[in-house]
Design a protein that fits this description.
heterodimer, A: 373 residues, alpha+beta, seven-stranded antiparallel sheet, 18 helices, 45% helix, 15% strand, B: 596 residues, Jelly Rolls, FAD/NAD(P)-binding domain, six-stranded antiparallel sheet, 16 helices, 30 strands, FAD-dependent oxidoreductase (chain B), oxidoreductase (chain B), iron-sulfur (chain B)
Chain lengths: 373, 596
């Protein structure tokens, strides 16, 4: 079937036919127009028991030689959108050899890549017609998850040239790293398939989906996104929440602060409403994660020392080991400005100052010397 | 040696004050041997210092002869720092030898810059050889050696140390030597070189002050970043200075180095002060009167006076000292409306912060004929973790919000050294790398972003996006706006020393002359990454052909300032047409074949 299709494709290309007929629909478990299992390769969390149903949208992807391919929205039982999907059939051509690539793609509500399913009777193939192995599918999934892939800014012919030749405009450095980086990120022997898939996933459809979502967004959707483990969803929600919503959901936000990537943590600390820093109850859950979070997030927390309760200062005095030099200086400088320092804090600083394994013990020693003057 | 004698002279004068005290600056040693002079962090730790940058192979001894005023028993201290304190042997260990005495004390073990006591010795001859003996090849550092008849440790705090140093050396408050020029350019990167050439070609007498032995800054053979961007109106000048498009870190940088140095030196009216580092600038009535500089090894000082100054230091030092307005960090997305929704916080944050693009330290290794050993580097592993690599390109970049790219540059450089040594050590575990050895590791920080001095116009992302054709457009560029971020922000599993670039394709864009002089210091130009721009605005024109254009543009503007006895702003308000004509005429000056 695969060879026949390839021959057919080449034939049409040779005689100048630009369009094919409508794509063959997937004849797998999706034929029933609903799904209760996550896509085989999937980047989001899948809530157990979730059942999704496909509904048509007015969105589509234009594919060379194949025309428009429709985008469906997958909705849950409450008719709330969860994912977008499309059954894609696209030609992949290399050195005049064209084949069809069949793949079902999924996007998040924000138009980001969410995953893919392979077509049971039409495995992906490499340039030499060998079928993808399991590891190849996983690598393709990794590649598609990288929204800033090296494939993004390059034309396909730039990816197969020797690195020394082109002077890529605008890149700090290209030569030497390019080919290696391409090799590292794409499936061996399947550069053209990877390139085609990446540009389909991250093409104009991304903005179109996001635009559609923005037209549907409501409080429920924002809170669902806040509850997600997906960084883009979390950021989308945090940017749209009111001060009241921040306060009402402070425990969930603190949870994201604990579990999230540094980018989302730094956003949270920088954008918590003032009322958080005026309320012990609201700010404590964030300070509680001080020793667990990344250095950048710790620095941003320390920017709020002046509004922190004594209990925070006391807890921090037991976390001096995790502070960088400048963070420790900042903390000690803050203490130095206080009229009075709780004895237990001074004791902890003294213990730290006397510890031979502490790199910055000398800063604590200097502080204690000055404090006692 | 000269400075040691000088110190001794002062010593004789001040015998009553400091009986038998003697301070030997390490950077003034007669022969540094395999140690390198590092002047990058003078403003933070107080002095240039010697560093044993042997990439894991102990370097040759640094030696000097000290003329002791009296034979006596001396207590000896060395100012040093363990650059990776922790639960391992300090990486940069060294010892001291005075005359025939090998001191057992291993140095380079204290946290933070300060004095380590070496011991006491009887000096029985007037002239004694002093040697620094490197034990590791891993960046041991020595700032100074202090001999004293009294067993009293010198001060460690930076403020007290500076005044102690001046007292013991009996230094006058101001440099005795004054030199006058039409234009003083501080910083000999591509921008500073271009400014000097452009001004010199218009007949100005120029001083170019640069703290390294070679010109080019990030493009030099010491840092090895290739130049990018277009030439604009200044192809002839910039071709004297730029590089080929070799991979970053390539040894080919040496060829362009010679071209650049020879070209700048060929101008009779450029006085080139290599190995001189500016340390102060004083303004009166918003006008800079002079810049003071010190030789990085002899310690000699000079005062440079001129009606106009160019700050091409990269870090905006001249402006900073003189009180120029400046910015640092990322503006909030609303400050100038620099949003790129696709990249959100990574591009321009909701709330301003002090994050900036990071500094790179480039490096490389090569395959040898025989097996090559590399020492274990446990102190590097907390940074490198499992990362393995055999060379480092531009992605080797480090920025963190608790570290200022200026104030904490030494820690940033040291973090990168740990990343490099650790990653190479990991790579050496593989049999295929058995014959690899480190060929070159820069010890200079290649900065992308630090202070940005504020001009009459602040260049932003929107100026680039719109391709705004300013009436005073003097620099142009087609390069994408390219902003970097640390990949660890997106995934904590990533190493914290690797960055990613975000590229925004723009039409040809222009930088106005008003972004190239200070808003509040009347006679200060700026060229280079410290020009007047926002964080995102810097993303495109921070590369060196573009900054070279800035330099050439201010060099020409300085010539009009001199011609009409006006300040930089008045060139814009009163002589813009003549200025633009002068720039335009640059296109028609033929490039000699030898320079093409």
């Amino acid at each position: 079937m695969k060879i026949q299709l390839g021959i057919l494709l080449i034939f049409f290309a040779a005689i100048g036919f630009a369009q094919f007929g409508p794509q063959t629909p997937f004849s797998d478990r999706f034929g029933q127009n609903s799904m209760n299992l996550p896509p085989e390769f999937y980047s989001l969390e899948w809530n157990g028991g979730m059942q999704l149903k496909a509904k048509p949208t007015d969105l589509s992807i234009e594919i060379d030689s194949m025309g428009a391919q429709e985008i469906n929205v997958l909705v849950d039982l409450k008719d709330r959108p969860v994912l977008y999907t499309s059954d894609i059939s696209t030609p992949v051509c290399a050195d005049g050899d064209c084949r069809l690539m069949d793949i079902r793609l999924y996007w998040t509500l924000l138009g980001e890549y969410a995953g893919f399913d392979r077509y049971p009777n039409s495995p992906l193939t490499k340039h030499d017609h060998d079928e993808f192995l399991s590891a190849d599918y996983r690598k393709l999934h990794q590649l598609l998850m990288d929204d800033n892939s090296i494939l993004k800014r390059r034309k396909i012919d730039e990816l197969v040239k020797k690195p020394e030749q082109p002077e890529m405009e605008g890149v700090d450095a290209v030569a030497g790293a390019t080919i290696k980086e391409v090799k590292e990120s794409v499936v061996g022997g399947a550069l053209y398939s990877c390139y085609t898939a990446w540009h389909l996933v991250h093409g104009p459809i991304k903005d179109a989906i996001q635009k559609r979502t923005l037209s549907l967004v409501d409080n429920d959707m924002v809170l669902r996104m806040l509850g997600s483990n997906n960084t883009d969803y979390q950021m989308f929600a945090l940017k749209r929440m009111t001060e009241e919503q921040y306060a009402a959901n402070y425990l969930r936000i603190a949870q994201i602060f604990e579990d999230g990537v540094p980018l989302i943590r730094t956003f949270i600390v920088k954008n918590l409403p003032d009322r958080f820093w005026n309320s012990e109850r609201l700010q404590i859950p964030f300070w509680d994660n001080f020793s667990e979070v990344d250095i950048n997030s710790r620095s941003l927390l320390l920017d709020n020392l002046k509004n922190s309760p004594v209990s925070v200062l006391e807890n921090l005095s037991q976390e001096l080991s995790v502070m960088t030099k400048n963070q420790l200086n900042l903390y000690l400088m803050h203490l130095a400005e206080l009229k009075q320092i709780k004895p237990s804090i001074l004791t902890n600083i003294e213990i730290f100052a006397n510890s031979p394994s502490e790199t910055y013990a000398y800063l604590a020693t200097d502080f204690l010397k000055d404090y006692k003057l | 040696m000269k400075s040691i004698l000088l110190i001794l002279c002062f010593y004789l004068i001040s015998l009553g004050l400091y009986g038998q005290d003697l301070l030997i600056e390490a950077e003034s040693f007669d022969s540094p041997g395999g140690w390198v002079i590092d002047p990058q962090f003078v403003q933070q730790m107080g002095s240039p210092y010697l560093m044993a940058h042997g990439m894991g192979n102990p370097v040759k001894n640094a030696t000097t002869v000290v003329n002791f005023p009296e034979t006596s028993t001396y207590h000896i201290w060395v100012r040093t720092m363990n650059w990776v304190p922790g639960e391992w042997e300090a990486p940069g260990r060294f010892q001291l030898k005075v005359g025939d005495t090998d001191f057992e004390k291993v140095l380079g073990k204290r946290s933070g810059w300060g004095w380590e006591y070496v011991g006491a010795t009887e000096i029985s001859t007037k002239f004694e050889k002093v040697e620094l003996i490197d034990l590791t090849g891993f960046n041991g550092r020595c700032d100074a050696i202090y001999f004293s008849a009294k067993n009293e440790e010198p001060p460690s705090s930076p403020k007290k140390l500076a005044s102690w140093r001046m007292t013991i050396a009996q230094e006058p408050n101001a440099p005795k030597q004054h030199q006058a020029y039409d234009l003083v350019v501080v910083g000999g990167g591509i921008a500073g070189c271009a400014a000097s050439i452009a001004a010199a070609e218009q007949g100005l007498k120029v001083a170019l002050i640069h703290d390294r032995p070679m010109l080019g800054g990030n493009a030099s053979a010491e840092i090895r970043v290739h130049t990018l961007g277009i030439y604009g109106h200044f192809e002839r000048i910039l071709k004297k200075l730029d590089t080929e498009h070799y991979p970053n870190g390539s040894a080919e940088a040496k060829l362009d180095q010679k071209k650049r140095d020879d070209n700048v030196k060929s101008y009779e009216n450029i006085d080139l002060y290599l190995n001189w580092r500016a340390y102060d600038a004083v303004a009166e009535n918003n006008t800079i009167q002079y810049v003071d500089a010190r030789h990085t090894s002899s310690g000699e000082r000079k005062r440079f006076e001129a009606p106009y100054f160019v700050d091409s230091t990269g870090d905006g030092w001249v402006g900073f000292w003189a009180g120029a307005d400046f910015s640092y960090g990322r503006e909030s997305v609303d400050t100038y409306g620099e949003e790129w929704e696709e990249w959100g916080e990574l591009w321009s944050p909701n709330e301003e912060d002090n994050a900036v693009m990071g500094s790179s330290v480039l490096w490389g290794s090569k395959v040898m004929d025989t097996e090559q050993k590399f020492p274990e580097v446990p102190w590097a592993m907390p940074v490198a973790k499992a990362y393995e690599e055999v060379n480092g390109e531009w992605q080797w970049e480090f920025s963190r919000n608790d570290l200022n790219q200026i104030d904490d540059a030494e820690e940033i450089r040291d973090h990168m050294l740990r990343a490099i040594y650790g990653s190479f050590s990991n790579a050496k575990e593989h049999p295929e790398n058995a014959t690899r050895r480190l060929e070159w590791v820069s010890y200079l920080v290649g900065k992308r972003e630090s202070r940005r001095l504020v001009g009459d116009h602040i260049f932003t992302f929107n100026d680039a996006k719109a391709g705004t054709k300013f009436p005073d457009a003097v620099v142009q560029e087609t390069r994408e706006v390219d902003v970097h971020y640390q990949t660890v922000l997106e995934d904590e599993k990533n190493p914290d020393f690797i960055s990613e670039a975000l590229f925004y394709k723009t039409p040809r864009y222009y930088i106005p002359y008003r972004s190239l002089y200070s808003k509040n210091i009347d006679n200060l130009f700026m060229a280079g990454r410290n020009f007047s721009t926002s964080h995102v605005g810097l993303g495109g024109p921070r590369v060196m052909r573009t900054t070279g254009q800035m330099g050439a543009a201010v060099g020409l503007a300085a010539s009009l300032c001199k011609k009409y006895d006006v300040n930089p702003r008045q060139v814009y308000t009163g002589y813009l047409k003549e200025y633009l004509d002068l720039i335009e005429s640059q296109k028609y000056i033929k490039i000699p074949k030898s320079k093409q």
